[in-house]
Amino acid sequence: MALKLFNTLSRSIQDFVPLDPAGKKVGMYCCGPTVYDFAHIGNWRTFVFGDLVRRTLEFKGYTVTHVMNITDVEDKIIKHVRETKTSLREFTGKYEAAFLEDLKTLNCLLPHHTPHATGHIADIISLIEKLVQRGIAYKAADGSVYFSIEKYRGCGCTYGQLLKLNFDEMKAGERVKSDEYAKESVADFALWKARVPEDGDVFWPSPWGEGRPGWHIECSAMSTKILGPSFDLHLGGEDLIFPHHEDEIAQSEGATGKPFVKYWLHGAFLLVEGKKMSKSLGNFFTLRDLLAKGFTGREIRYALLTAHYRETFNFTLEGLQGARASLARIDECVSKLREIEKAGNWTSAHPDAEILKKFATTLDDDLNVSAAWAVVFDWVREINRRIATNSLTAAEAATALATWANFDIVLGLELRHSDNLPEEILALGFARQEARKRKDFKRADAIRDELKAKGWVIEDTPKGPKLKKL
Ligand code: AMP
Ligand code: ZN
To answer: What is the Cβ-side half-sphere exposure of residue 300, based on CA atoms within 13 angstroms?
Structure first.
């Protein structure tokens, strides 16, 4: 079955068909953190969702290029830099380091590219120049450059692709300089913001004078620079639909004349007692708050993966206790399997194809994690029953462990934590076995080379393939 995903652009569930004619490569951009504070676990719900999408695509055999930007200059950051009397780099560097550390704690795969807005000022300027040349952007009396919605629509382009907008109330030429605004106040938005005294040292030269980029243009510039004018997937939390993602579409399509993104995926909010967890409401836990309470990254990751990404998730500490208990059940089952298997060569065993197919089918259904967990826990129950009746052989335990390892390519719960095999390497090892089974020796050899480039060698032994560090 093909992977199906809910595309905000079409407001429907669609088959996922990558732009790559060979159907192999996938470009995926996730809006990253604004590094002005520690990310709260509402933010982490969205980033773990991005990780789930990437892992699912890799599990299904796609080669993903995953880009996640670091927003290191925008309105809120500048305000904090001013208040804390630090330099931009010093201020954002601290929160970026914390973000990357938290990403590891939650066992999210590191994106292949993590571009910084401040490292792409030239690309941002050249994108704005294109829009100015095409008559879609203009410099206003305040020295800032704005995107003209009227001109854009006049070219036959649609503003309001992700949601319906009412233009009747809109006055032509009305402008909004702040990065965040409601859909009721739709107006020409800032691409380049002219330097003002409050910006302090945060400014760059440009053809329109000193200033700094708006938030929305940053993502358009970085995504198209790395993934090209058109790419497959763009992700973020649901609050980014408007204006951020709508403006990204307008800027990118306005400049290139090509469709920007094929599938837009948005994760629902994490709530606390029915309210959105947010810094402005002050009702948030950072990952660090939860680690200080004694929870582990695995437990928090598990909890964040229990609800479907399009359903709001009500976060409670009791819920997290529940996650701890469920994870302990899985861990206990895995360690019993290890005791039965003993030999430690389960990485060469074949996973249970039938159960893996069931698991994959649940994910194909718009990442239906609740159904995926049901498959996992039915499986645990059955394994536990077999263990209790002493009827599970060492070979069957090896199959079960290999099956777990395959589940874990998607779940990322490090179920094999006593083996020193990085997940990525193990996943490649399994992918090679699968390719050989399909008699796709070209792919199998390509994977062997990829493993070698990563410092691992695969040896085919009479007992099956073994992975060794070079
Ligand atoms: P920010 O660092 O504020 O740019 O946000 C990073 C990501 O977290 C964005 O994709 C937001 O949509 C997402 N986000 C913010 N608040 C929440 C929340 N309460 N639940 C889920 N995602 C959120
Ligand atoms: Zn973005």
So the answer is: 29
Instruction: At 38, list the tokens.
Output: 């520690």
Pairing assessment for the beta strands 231-237 and 25-30 based on DSSP bridges:
parallel
Residue 462 has pLDDT above 70, yes or no: no
Q: Is 343 a residue whose pLDDT tops 90?
A: no
- 298 exposed, middle or buried (CB, 10 Å; 0-12, 13-18, 19+)? buried
pLDDT at residue 272, rounded to an integer: 86
From the CA of 238, which ligand is nearest?
1
**Which residue puts its alpha carbon closest to atom 7 of ligand 1?**
43
Amino acid at 315: F
Q: What pLDDT score does 466 carry?
A: 77
Closest ligand to residue 69's CA: 2
Nearest to 116 by CA among 45, 227, 33, 209: 33
Model pLDDT, residue 379 = 96
Q: Tokens 């090896």 label which residue?
A: 398
pLDDT confidence bin for 173, thresholds 50/70/90: confident
H helices present in 342-422, as ranges: 353-364, 369-388, 394-411
CA 448, CA 428: separation in Å to the nearest integer? 8
Mean pLDDT in residue range 165-194 = 88
* Angle (nearest 5°) at CA 413 between 411 and 417: 140
Number of C-beta neighbours around residue 385 at 10 A: 11
Predicted confidence at residue 39, as pLDDT, reads 95
Q: For residue 35, which atom of ligand 1 is closest to its CA?
A: 2
Nearest CA to ligand 1 atom 9: 237
In sequence order, the 6+-apart residues with CB closer than 8 A to the CB of 52 are 305, 309, 367, 369, 410
Answer for the pair 72, 92: CB distance below 8 angstroms, yes or no. yes
- Cβ 37 under 6 angstroms from ligand 1: no
Give the number of the ligand closest to the Cα of residue 309: 1
> Residue 420 — very low, low, confident or very high, per pLDDT cuts 50/70/90?
low
Q: Is the pLDDT of residue 417 over 70?
A: no
CA of 69 to the centre of ligand 2 (A): 7
Q: In sequence order, which residues have a C-beta less than 8 Å from that of residue 306 and are 6 or more positions away?
A: 313, 323, 369, 370, 373
Q: Tell me, what's the pLDDT at 468?
A: 82
Residue 401: pLDDT above 70? yes
